[in-house]
Protein: Thymidylate kinase
Amino acid sequence: MGRLVVIEGLDGAGKRTLTDALTAALAEVGASVATLAFPRYGVSVHADLVREALHGAHGDLGDSVYGMGLLYALDRRGAADEIRALRAGHDVLLLDRYVASNAAYQAARLRQGADSEVVRWVRDLEIERFGLPVPDAHLLLRVAPEVAAARARGRAESDATRARDAFESDDGLQARCAAVYDELAAANWLSPWHVVDGADRVDAAALAADLLGTRLP
Structure:
């Protein structure tokens, strides 16, 4: 069975870029790699409801922390069998966002930390009740919130299909989310966390070698 590795970080941190670089570096050394990104917009009805709510649809749904958290969780529950199959069939499965995203964003929305009730609720719901696979490792792509925000703005300006949603355009939320991510990483929440400096050029080859080892440093 392959390693399940989750890439986490703020909107605009560069998770997709890191996923692509790691995929290429792992393939270069002969490892088979699969990738999956959450939310699964255009694939999952729950993910599409999330996107619509974040752009003002469905009344006050977007204001509900637990309502939105449940939709994110249901999106992943719908992908559970696919995650297991991809993990079984490849050396590494890279996930762009996973359960920790739900924990970090919902805690930040409530202005709470990693030890809060909503974080425990996310874990109980997604891992215990829904039975989602536990990651082998997390990579936190850490960038300053203002840098991530600038990247997200630039992405939206250059690509009309990637307009910023309510979460992405809330600078205060992004800053609080960054703090929760740091707390989750410090606590090695669910599995070991490795912090990657997103402000510098990431050595994808070295990181790929770490991922193929028994554990991350």
